[in-house]
# Entry
Amino acid sequence: MSSCNGNSTMKCRVADSICVRSIDGKSTFELQDVIECDSIPSELPEIATPEVASAYSHLHRISSYLPPLDPSIKVELLIGRDIPEIHHVQEQITGDKGEPFAQRLALGWVVIGEVCLGKVHAPNKISVRKTHVLNDGRCTTFPLCENNIEISDLKDDIFIRTTNDNKVGLSVEDRQFLSLMDTDFRKDDTGHWSAPLPFKQPKPPIPNNRSQAWKRAQILDTSLRKNQTKREHFMTFMEKVLNSGAAEIAPKVISRECWYLPLFGVYHHKKPDQIRGVFDSSAVYGDVSLNSLLMSGPDLTNNLVGILMRFRKNAIAITGDIEQMFYQFRVSNHHRDYLRFFWYQDNDFSKPLIEYRMTSHVFGNTPSPAVASYGLRQAVATSDEDVRAFVCNDFYVDDGLTSFTNKEQAIDLVKKTQNDLKT
# Structure
């Protein structure tokens, strides 16, 4: 198929012996080799109606030749220039400069040009079409762009500064992420807040990378055998993870998709006696990584400068942090098999490596910060106003900073916040 975008090869069905007839029945044309396609883009407001013709004096006489618009009738056929006789102009009516004009073709009258009937044919939203080319071999889709542009007269407000001038707007993907959280973020049967993994849509088939994760687990095992201190630190870290319920022994996988996360450890330069286990969600297998399949979500982190400025405002200061914040938010049960990993049975280094899976959002997944920040706000949605203000405005990720004029207020806020975040 040739178009202004170049040549392309496509598979389709071809129909023949199809005829089209004008509304008055005077003209009939036989169409040869009609090609079937998946969808035909159509904009019903672009179709001329009797009201359009009646609105212009030079087109008034053809209004009776234009059928009323029936929104229930779909556009099912596009006739191209390969049948030129259908496009022969038999009569033309023109008006003044800038006004629409009409042409009579063999199949009837068409109106060409810009028309505006009290916004009936001129919507105040701009629709943008964009093309998605899928890498998994499925058909190209043409979804309607979800961004709306509000049009206003700029002559009065073009130089006015607002508080939103430097704020980055939400992307389409960010809106999809928030919509998913608004719908599926809830408390599970155990009383924990739970959220699904925010997969991009459409999600392609995911290969099984068990062999990759097993190889990485063997490498980590060798490293831990050579370094007793690192081994002890890692065992202590994983003991907290397992005892908190953030991980569980994985069930057998029969037919479901699954993904394995290689595990490695990192040290903070200020905490040489502690190691953090990181799940390598960026590990690539078969041109796919878990992070490449997930929406990262919007940046919900508060402005650090603002937090520090408010922290210095009063004499009585309080600070606090949420231990293992990501692990406080569970993963929906149907997504836990995408977080499988290898670790020692019963957290005993002398026992074999077996399969576990995370029940909580992990350090290493790109959406985990957004999920945790969203969840933290959701956890205090029904709390007192001072608790909501503290958590929503004075937390930087998992660290809270604020100040008061007297210690009674500070102690009261700390107790209420601790109590609300426990439930």
